[in-house]
Amino acid sequence: MSEERPFQQYICRACGLIYDEAEGDPDSGLAPGTRFEDIPDDWECPLCGVTKADFEPFVPREPVDAVAADASPRRVGAVVVGAGLAGWAAVEALRALDRDLPITLVTACSGDRYHKPELSVALSRGQSADDLVRESGSEAARRLGVQLLPRTFVTGLSPQPRRLRTTRGTLSYTGLVLAMGARPALPEALPEAHCWRVNDLAGWSGLQRALADGPARVAVVGGGMVGCELAEDLARAGHRVSLLDRHAYPLAGLLPEAAGRRLLAAQRALGIAVRPNVAVAGVERNAAGERVVQLADGERLVVDQVVAATGLATEPRL
Asked: Would you tell me which of 14, 30, 261, 308 could form a disulfide with 25, CB atoms 3.0–4.6 Å apart?
């Protein structure tokens, strides 16, 4: 009988979300213990919206007997820069190939492991940063036998002698993986001091704390994928959201006009004040602590918080 076999996990091929039969999906009406075969065919992935047919059984990687991490940050071996999905995936793959390979992971954050797409739905679900972390950086490092250098910044790279300069000293390496991802690209009109950027757990946590006192007025600048996801999540969490975009409809670079217009209508039905064909000329803070968004046509929009979703740029320094 199905009740007697262990609960299984299934992974979304589109976004990587894992459906765990033991946990179910209560937000979609699937109680804990709901078997995958009992899920209705029209059920949608809570992150990306694909259907049950786009999930496949998830088989966790067999644990590898890790070697003890060398206490010296200068030990020669493989060095991975970046502790996001790509960085930790590289570490897992390297460890599976060679249990004795010295691996050093350098990251500007704590190195905690979380599923980044979940940042786009966490506010409306009432989740905290602790809820999103699947494994702490220190726990993952112990499990995989990795020398973890958290809150460490890379300052330079010398390819010929194979040396990486960091704020915690110079690392020699036999192999190097740069998995740093990209940083938010802010146009000059969006000063960092007045705009939130949700590109990692730290940025999301800051925005969550800023919104902790209750419903707020939030302007999301940029109608791309991230901007649309955040605007919807904020609206579902009870905030008054304005979505500002230079184009005539959201996701203009990805969707044909008919689909974009339908998305626009759906956003407005959700209560999002979509403002197409507008450009932001500047953002400043007034005496009351509010953000004043200056539009290119002279209109001023007063809100409590501004979220910039204006694309990403790779870090050219290395």
From this structure: 30
Contact 137, 92 (CB under 8 A): no
Q: Helical H runs in 220-269?
A: 225-236, 257-269
Residue 224 DSSP code: S
The neighbouring-strand residues paired with 278 are none
CA 242 to CA 280: how far, in whole Å?
13
What is the predicted pLDDT for the residue at 100?
Answer: 92
Q: Kindly provide the b/e burial profile for residues 211-236, where b requires at least 16 CB atoms within 10 angstroms of the residue's own CB.
A: beeeebbbbbbbbbebbbbbbbbbbb
pLDDT tens sequence across 99-158 = 999 999 999 999 999 988 899 989 999 999 999 999 999 999 999 999 999 999 999 999
CA distances from 48 to 60, 183, 247 (A): 22, 22, 23
Length of the chain measured in residues = 318
List pLDDT tens digits, range 45-56.
887 888 899 999
Query: Which residues touch 117 (CB under 8 Å, ≥6 apart)?
Result: 15, 16, 17, 47, 48
| Rounded mean pLDDT, 70-89 | 79
Q: How remote is the C-alpha of 3 from its chain's centroid?
A: 35
User: CA–CA distance from 259 to each of 26, 254, 264 (Å)?
Assistant: 30, 10, 9
DSSP 229: H
| Strands annotated E in 136-233 | 146-149, 154-158, 163-166, 169-172, 175-178, 182-184, 217-221
